[in-house]
Amino acid sequence: MASNYVHNLNPVLLDLGKVQIRWYGLMYVIGFLIAGYLLKILVRNKFFKIAEEKIDSLITTMIICMFVGARTAYVFIYNWDYYSQNLMDLMAVWKGGLSFHGALVGLIVGGVIFARQNKMSWMEVMDSVALAGTPGLFFGRIGNFINGELYGRITNSALGIIFPQGGPFPRHASQLYEAFLEGICLLIILWIVKSKVKIYGIIGGCFVGLYGMFRFIVEFFREPDSQLGYYFGFITMGQILCFLMVMAGVGLILYARKKNITI
Fold first, then answer.
1. Is 229 left (phi over 0), alpha (psi -120 to 50) or beta?
2. Residue pair 202/193 in contact by the 8 Å Cβ criterion
3. Span 105-156, pLDDT tens digits
4. Which of 67, 130, 142, 244 could form a disulfide linkage to 207, CB 3.0–4.6 angstroms apart?
5. Helix, strand, or coil (residue 50)
6. Are residues 205 and 256 in contact, defined by beta-carbon separation less than 8 angstroms?
7. Are 61 and 113 in contact (CB under 8 A)?
8. What is the pTM of this model?
9. Burial level of 188, CB count in 10 A (0-12/13-18/19+)?
10. 3-class state of residue 31 by DSSP
C-alpha cells in the first residue's frame, strides 16, 4: 500500500540573503496582473464604463482596502485574545493572519470609494471586480498550499497529504479544494452569468453567495482555527461567516433587481 505524500515544498522561490522572494507573494502578484488584464477586457467590451487609465487606481484602492479589511478581521474576529496581549504584533503580517471575509468587506468599501470618486454605480464596480478578481482566489490558495498552511482535517483517504506543520497524520488538501471551487468553478460560473444578465449587481451577488456556499462546504474538510475550534460543537467561525455571505449574496441579487441598473 502506497504511503501518503509528504508536503515538502519550499515556500521560498528565491533567497537573496536578507531579501526573500516567496511563492505566496508571487501568487498575489500573478492574481493582480490577471485582474488588471481582465479589467481592461471589461472596459474594452463596454461592460465596465471607465477610462482604461483608471484601472491602476482601482487596483491600488482595492489592494489597500483588502489588506486593511483582511488584517482587521483576523485580529478582532479570529485571534483577539492573542493580539490584545501582544499589541506589538498587530502589524506583523509576515507571521500570518489575514481573513478572506475581512478582505471581502475591504473590497466592498474600496468599491464604494472608487464608485463615488468616479460618479458611477457601486454595483458596476463590484461586478467588474468579481469577474476580474476571482482568478486571484485560485492563485492565493495555491500559495497557501505551497506554504503548507490552512491544511485540512485528518483523513484516511489515499489523497491525504502529510503537512509537517499539522503533525504526522495525512490531512485533506483543503487549500486545493478551495482553489478548485472558489477559483476555477466560481470564475466559470460568473462569466457564464455575465453572458446572461442585463443589470448590474447580479454578478456581485452571485460571487458573494457562491463563494460563501463553496467555502461553507470546504470548511467540513478544513482544520478549524486552533484558537477558536467549533461553535455549538459542530460549526466553525468560517461557516458562520459563510452562511452570512450566502444571505448577503441573495440580498444583493434582490436589491440589484429592484434598482435595475442596466448594463
1. left
2. yes
3. 999 999 999 999 999 999 999 999 999 999 999 999 999 999 998 899 999 9
4. 130
5. coil
6. yes
7. yes
8. 0.88
9. exposed
10. helix
